[in-house]
Structure formats: C-alpha cells, structure tokens
C-alpha cells in the first residue's frame, strides 16, 4: 500500500511528492503525458531549451520560495521585458514612460498622465461597463486602440465591448522608464531549462513515476493502491462532470527551427494588430542569452477550448466561478483526496504560487 498516489507530475504534484518522500512516505506519481513537469516542461531543440507549453519566467517576492527553487537549478538574470509590434511599430511593455514617449513624444510623467487624462474624457465620467471602457479609463484611447484592443480580442475570441470589465481590473502602467514587466524582487530563468527541476524533485528512492497513464483509465485500481490521493487534474473530470463542464481558453503553438542566429532580438514579441492571427512569437534562446547558430521560434495562437484540448486558462466569469464552487463543495467531502494545482483548483497560478501552495499542503498533511 502506498501512502500517496499523485495524479500529475507538474510543479504542484512534484513538490508535494518530494516533501512526502523526504518524510519517509511511499509515493507514486502517475502522468498521462509522455514526460514529467506539466506545463513548465522544456525540451532541448537545436541546443536551445524550448518552453513547450508557453513562455515561463520565474518571478517572486517570496524569499523562501526563491531559495527553495534554487536548490534545483541555477537561475540567470533574465528580466521579462516584452515588446509589442503593431503593424511594424515597436512599443515597450508594460506600458511605461518609454511607451508613452514613443506614442506621444512626452518626456515627463506629468505630461504622460495629462495625455491619458485628456483621452479618458471620451467616457464622460461613465463607470466602465465593459473591457473597452475599462481599458480607456485606465490608459486612454491610443494605447487601447494600438496595444490592447485586437490583442485582447485575439486572446478571448470576442469583441472587447462584449468582454466584462473585470478581466483588466488593473493594467500594469508605470510612470518610470522601466521595461521590467514584473514588480517582484526576484526573477530569472533556470539555466538549462525547467525540466531538470522536476526531475530532481522526483529523484528519490521513495518515489516511483509512471508516464503515459491516465488516472481515469484505471481509476478503481489507483484508488485502491494508496491511502491518499493528491489530485492535480481537472476537478470537474474527477466528479465525472456531474454539474457540467468548466470552461478554459486553450492555445495552439507552431514551433520552427530557423537557420539564422537572431530572429526578433527579444524573447517575447506581442502582435497587437488584428490582422496577424497569432498573439505572440517567442524566441526561446533569448531566455538564456543563447549564442547558437540557429534559433527556435514559437507562434502562439489563442483558441476556444473543447473537451479533449489542453486546458490552459480557466475562464473565471460568473458562470464558471459558480460551477467551480459546486465542485469545490464536493471536493471537501472527499476526505482522502487533496485537490491542488491550477486544474485541481480551477485557478490561474504562477509557479511561485503553486510551489507555496504545495509546500503548505505538504506541511499541513505531513505534520506528524
Ligand atoms: C501559457 C502559459 C504561460 C505561463 N507563464 C508563466 C510564467 O511566465 N511564470 C509563472 O510563474 N507561471 C507561468 N504559468 C503558470 C505555470 O504554468 C503554472 O503555475 C504551473 O505549470 C502549474 O503547475 P500544476 O502542477 O498546477 O499544473 P500542470 O503543470 O498543468 O500539471 C498537471 C499535470 O497533471 C497531468 N494530469 C492531468 N490529468 C491527469 C490524469 N487524469 N491522469 C494523469 N495525469 C494527469 C497533466 O498532464 C499535467 O502534467 C504559465 C501558464 C501558461 C498556461
């Protein structure tokens, strides 16, 4: 009999597995994909670590989490500073004094604030009732038209006027010449990629890992072999979609190896016009300051999620939040199952949050 069966070898499941194994517990991790690491999986292609499920930049202000993750990899000094390409015009992100200067020629923060204030006037003091109005109230019409409108519509597959305002309750706007996307104290990319982190977490004599197996294909067997289950798959699937299906946004990636050294000069370029079908291009080598002769790029397309697609972003609107609450109540009645991670809790989590949550759950669970 195992102490824990862990469904999913992503960051949550692997951190929990490692903590349990260190306490002498017998653990088995099952994973339906043919590799460990979940969505942080990176794979070497043409000597470059490719982020297979979307660009991942580690950032946190939590010193304990930062110290924890560094046991498993050395981190470089990468700072996320994406740029936007609008019909060939390049703007710095997040919206900051460099963006405002390029757009309007303004030099000081006061001039930039005044410009935004003037553009906000089109709303006539109206409380924003949709995403378009919310964006204009935060950054004015020019930034909305060039950098937000079409990008957001591509992401959500719907017009900004039909999207709820809460999606962009806050926008990263900065009145300094600082292109660093994140406000966190610590930031970087693991040299050599993310997969090594999970491989090291799972490399323990008390942990057995089985790939290419789906919990639901042999559910009764897996439920019988362990005292407890840590479940990091989709919560609605665990309950056989009893109340209905939780919705996600999905992504499609097109990756190419190019016979050139440097394609776009930056790891992340967002395409904010409506004509380009993809939302962004990732050039992976720049995450690790690569000097290889070739380069690998990935075009990222946003798409509607359908059952069977990879679920990426939960849709936290009223309908889905209400549905999730019902599943959450059911989950509380499962005394031998711990639900965790982004799919188990139907919530977008950054990596540092997942680590913190898994460490917290393990501490609570393994206290004696
Ligand atoms: C496009 C994108 C970009 C991101 N960028 C960043 C970033 O820059 N910085 C950051 O901090 N975070 C980022 N994140 C968030 C990060 O990916 C998550 O925090 C992290 O991967 C969550 O880990 P997890 O273990 O909860 O889930 P996952 O990584 O999804 O792991 C769950 C695992 O469970 C497996 N599984 C599911 N169901 C079953 C089943 N029935 N049987 C067996 N196995 C199963 C899945 O195959 C998967 O491997 C990003 C996320 C996305 C989608």
Write the layout of secondary structure elements.
Layout: E1 2-7, H1 11-22, E2 27-30, E3 42-45, E4 48-51, E5 58-60, H2 63-69, E6 83-86, E7 89-92, H3 97-104, H4 109-120, H5 131-156, E8 186-188, H6 195-202, E9 207-210, H7 219-224, E10 226-231, H8 235-238, E11 248-258, E12 268-271, E13 280-283, E14 295-304, E15 313-314, H9 318-332, E16 337-339, H10 341-344, H11 351-365
Parallel strand pairs: 1-2, 1-10, 2-9, 6-12, 10-16
Antiparallel strand pairs: 3-4, 5-8, 6-7, 11-14, 11-15, 12-13, 13-14
Helix pairs in contact: 1-11, 4-5
Flavin-adenine dinucleotide binds next to α1, α10 and α11.
Explained architecture:
- By secondary structure, the chain is an alpha/beta fold.
- The protein has 2 domains: 189 residues, NAD(P)-binding Rossmann-like Domain (Rossmann fold); 69 residues, no CATH class.
- It is globular, with a radius of gyration of 22 Å.
- It binds flavin-adenine dinucleotide.
- The site of flavin-adenine dinucleotide has 34 residues, from helix 1, helix 10 and helix 11.
Keywords:
single chain; 368 residues; alpha/beta; Rossmann fold; seven-stranded mixed β-sheet; five-stranded parallel β-sheet; 11 helices; 16 strands; 32% helix; binds flavin-adenine dinucleotide
Q: Output the structural class.
A: alpha/beta
Strand content: 15-25%
- What gap, in angstroms, lies between the N and C termini? 19 Å
Q: Strand tally, please?
A: 16
Biggest sheet record: 7 strands, mixed
Shape: globular
CATH class of the largest domain: Alpha Beta
Domain tally = 2
- What's the name of the CATH homologous superfamily of the largest domain? NAD(P)-binding Rossmann-like Domain
């Amino acid at each position: 009999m195992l102490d824990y069966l862990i469904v999913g070898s992503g960051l949550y499941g692997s951190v929990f597995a490692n903590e349990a194994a260190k306490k002498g517990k017998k653990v088995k991790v099952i994973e339906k994909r043919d590799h460990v690491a979940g969505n942080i999986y990176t794979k070497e292609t043409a000597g470059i670590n490719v982020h297979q499920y979307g660009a991942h930049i580690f950032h946190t202000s939590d010193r304990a989490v930062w110290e924890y993750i560094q046991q498993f990899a050395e981190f470089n000094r990468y700072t996320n500073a994406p740029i936007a390409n609008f019909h060939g015009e390049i703007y710095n992100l997040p919206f900051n004094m460099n963006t405002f200067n390029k757009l309007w020629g303004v030099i000081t923060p006061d001039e930039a604030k005044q410009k935004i204030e003037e553009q906000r006037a089109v709303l006539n003091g109206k409380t924003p009732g949709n995403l378009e109005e919310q964006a204009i109230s935060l950054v004015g019409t020019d930034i909305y038209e060039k950098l937000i409108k079409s990008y957001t519509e591509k992401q959500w597959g719907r017009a900004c006027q039909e999207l709820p305002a809460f999606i962009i309750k806050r926008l990263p706007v900065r009145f300094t010449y600082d292109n660093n996307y994140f406000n966190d104290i610590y930031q970087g990319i693991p040299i050599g990629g993310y997969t090594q982190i999970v491989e090291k977490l799972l490399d323990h004599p008390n942990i057995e890992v089985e790939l290419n197996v789906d919990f639901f294909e042999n559910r009764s067997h897996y439920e019988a072999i362990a005292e407890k289950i840590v479940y990091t798959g989709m919560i609605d699937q665990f309950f056989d979609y009893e109340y209905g299906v939780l919705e996600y946004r999905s992504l499609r990636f097109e990756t190419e190896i190019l016979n050139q050294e440097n394609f776009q000069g930056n790891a992340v370029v967002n395409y904010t016009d409506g004509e380009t079908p993809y939302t962004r291009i990732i050039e992976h080598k720049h995450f690790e300051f690569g000097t290889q002769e070739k380069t690998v790029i990935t075009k990222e397309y946003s798409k509607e999620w359908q059952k069977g697609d990879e679920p990426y972003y939960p849709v936290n609107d009223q309908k889905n939040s209400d549905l999730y609450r019902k599943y959450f109540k059911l989950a509380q009645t499962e005394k031998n199952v711990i639900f965790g991670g982004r799919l188990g809790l139907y919530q977008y989590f950054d990596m540092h949050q997942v680590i913190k949550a898994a460490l917290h759950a393990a501490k609570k669970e393994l206290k004696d």
